[in-house]
Amino acid sequence: MEYKISNRLKIASIILVVLGGLLWGWGYMSSHDVTEDNISEYMNDSHGEGHGDAYHNEDNGSASAYKVESSQDEDHAEEGHKMSHEEHVLHQIHNRPYAALYVAAFFFFMIALGVLAFYAIQYAAQAGWSPVLFRVMEGITSYVLPGGILVLLVAALGGSHIFIWMDPDVVAHDEIIQAKESWLNKTWFFIRAIIFLAGWSLYRYFSRKFSLAQDTVEGNSNFKKNFRISAGFLVFYIYTESMMSWDWIMSVDPHWFSTLFGWYVFASMFVSGITVIALITIYLKSKGLLEFVNDSHLHDLAKFMFGISIFWTYLWFSQFMLIWYSNIPEEVTYFVSRIEDYKLPFFGMVAMNFVFPLLLLMNSDYKRIPWFVVMAGIVILCGHYLDVFNMIMPATVGDRWYIGAPEIGAICLFAGIFLFVVFTALSKAPLLAKGNPFLKESENFHY
Amino acid sequence: MEAASKVIHAIYTDDDILMSAVKKVKAAKHHIEEIYTPFPVHGLDKAMGLAPTRIAITSFMYGCVGLIVAVVMMNYIMIEDWPQDIGGKPSFSYIENMPAFVPIMFELTVFFAAHLMVITFYLRSRMWPFKKAENPDPRTTDDHFLMEITIHNNEADLTKLLTETGAVEINIVEKDEDAH
């Protein structure tokens, strides 16, 4: 069963990249049209219409009490720095294209990394149901290395536009960041990132190599090697994924921390990854290429989408409830800024990532209907894009967020690269891992 | 309706043989009254042509009831009857204190769904306290499988068919319909 990337798909992904690049570039230009000279004018123009300013009028008792706390905290951070409000807003406006690029780059990268973890679990558990899907998973994980490099490039390019602790000026006036400097410094950040990425890519390289070798070489030696490196990789992964989430995401709010953040990001990447496996499987099956994949495989993928969506909600809520309950100012500002300035994406995300999959995928029969799974999958993916958006944006652009040209442009750009890389990888090997010792069980799998 | 009817009991010793027997009997267009097995046999309900279970729907409804009970109960206890200052935020509003009640809402949803579903399953299976066992042959609780088919003047046909399907024992029994 060979797949060849069609010209139409190639052209579509190139168009996505070009279009996304142009949109993002336009967004970048228009945000940099605002300079120190015209910022006052710009702010007068947008006053009253911008959603960011709207809440000033509707403050009620309890909300304004939070407001005082949170703004005090901000003042504190910039103490001695003496930044005017205009300058602050100007920074946020200039940060936006970088943050938009970073959110999209990370979102597509995390899909590939989530699939890599799922794939390793299948090997380590010696799962019998999934080998027919291995080549689809291997196709998606081919994006781990390019996607990871892109995230790092955007991080390097954005620098202090995304990570405020990369700005020596800010650090000089901030004791809390100074105390964290032995971990949060540019050199160590990129060294760590390269270690993480190298480890993940090495596993991906060898597991793919052994998986292909298993098709042609007699005996199960390659399968056994894959089993061993998968178990080892999972140990490496759960540590590095956690540290990656502190570095690449949590550090955008360098004063704030949450101890279950690594798990929370993991749940997000896991469910997005499984959703993409299901979507690509359905796509390839609709082309008549995966006739060995039956309803029960789809059913199982949909069960995972359902289950991990609830797992994500559990972690989201655990993080939220503890911080909400204790109401400690330096912790709770994180959610105050999100609930005040990001009400729609923050609660919209919970609806999309929890309520939709819960109601759509609860019924057993619906998990076998491809268009139903596709519909739920698209909602889940948009919801988890919003999740990353909510993690990065409040720290970088504050209340000056919008899902406009730079955001949509960045999504198109990375979606194009993702599709191109993944479908090129899919066409490099037969779609059936025919040497896998569990293949017969997988082909006959039924629920 | 006749008060008593004749049924045929075919006994098997293997679940795979039973499954193929069920398929043959269904193919010959006989109605299988009931099958008694020592353990659940995967796919037997589909092979017998039983209607899909509706227990999942009842479970969903019980879950909704549990959720409502939790909301009403916590609202009464913590907000109305004896207003509590939760987490230093004395808002005395259910919705603003909702995060604190989510664990209870979750637990009662699961509690109601699980317990009521089990009780429904028992009642629907006609099992309640002090009920006399319906199973016609104690060996079906050990290692034998029993298929029950009602006889409509086709005793010889059925006996022949069931012998061919690998039944180790075939008994004709007078069955009292009111025994349930």
**What CATH architecture of the largest domain in chain B do you see?**
2-Layer Sandwich
How many domains of chain B?
A: 2
In the predicted model, the low-confidence regions of chain B spanning at least 5 consecutive residues are: none
* Total number of domains of chain A: 1
Helix content of chain B: 40-55%
Name of the CATH first level of the largest domain in chain B: Alpha Beta
Question: Roughly how many Å is the radius of gyration of chain A?
Answer: 23 Å
Give the tally of β-strands of chain B: 4
- So what's the overall shape of chain B? rod-shaped
Please state the CA-atom Rg of chain B, rounded to the nearest Å. Answer: 25 Å
Strand content of chain B: 15-25%
Describe this structure as you would to a colleague.
The complex is a heterodimer of chains A (447) and B (180). Chain A contains 18 helices and no strands. Chain A is an all-alpha fold and 447 residues long. Chain A has one domain. Chain A starts with 6 loop residues before the first helix and ends with a helix. Chain B is an alpha+beta fold and 180 residues long. The two termini of chain B are 15 Å apart. Chain B has five helices and four strands, in the order βαβαααβαβ. In chain B, helix 3 runs antiparallel to helix 4. In chain B, 46% of the residues lie in helices and 16% in strands. In chain B, strands 2-3-1-4 form a four-stranded antiparallel sheet, with helices on one face. Chain B folds into two domains: 92 residues, Alpha-Beta Plaits; 70 residues, no CATH class. Chains A and B meet through helix 13 of A and helix 4 of B.
